[in-house]
Design brief:
Layout: E1 2-6, E2 12-13, E3 16-20, E4 52-54, E5 60-62, H1 70-86, H2 89-99, H3 104-117
Parallel strand pairs: 1-3
Antiparallel strand pairs: 2-3, 4-5
Length: 124
């Protein structure tokens, strides 16, 4: 038997039971919703890091570029932030030490200097 929401309570019309809708449909704000799952404790590492290589111990080595343009620098720094945020505190300190050996900002400055040396604008 089908049920439909309507204004006629208890009336059957062609195999349809009309049920009156509830009058007070305010949400209950005193109890937290149980439908949604909290993702605050989960860590998300990049599926395929484009500018870092995963090592056997779970840490990441940076890919060492000679020159880094603006877009690459932003991607590298964003990827580093994601990696560091996903690691536990002990591994985070070790990972920061690895990242400190290669500075994408320094490589970006080298790229800008080469452009200026050949008379090209730095943002090209």
């Amino acid at each position: 038997m089908e049920y439909a929401v309507g204004q006629r309570a208890g009336k059957y019309v062609r195999n349809v039971c009309w049920v009156e809708s509830p009058k007070n449909t305010k949400p209950d704000i005193t109890t937290p919703p149980t439908i949604m799952k909290s993702h605050t404790n989960e860590t998300f590492l990049p599926a395929e890091a484009g500018f870092h290589r995963e090592r056997d111990d779970g840490l990441y080595d940076p890919v060492r570029f000679v020159f880094v343009n603006d877009r690459m620098r932003q991607h590298i720094l964003n990827e580093r932030r994601v990696i560091l945020d996903a690691l536990p505190p002990l591994n985070r300190a070790r990972q920061e030490k690895i990242f400190s050996k290669y500075d994408p900002n320094e490589r970006h400055r080298s790229y800008q200097n080469i452009l200026r040396m050949y008379g090209r604008p730095a943002n090209a």
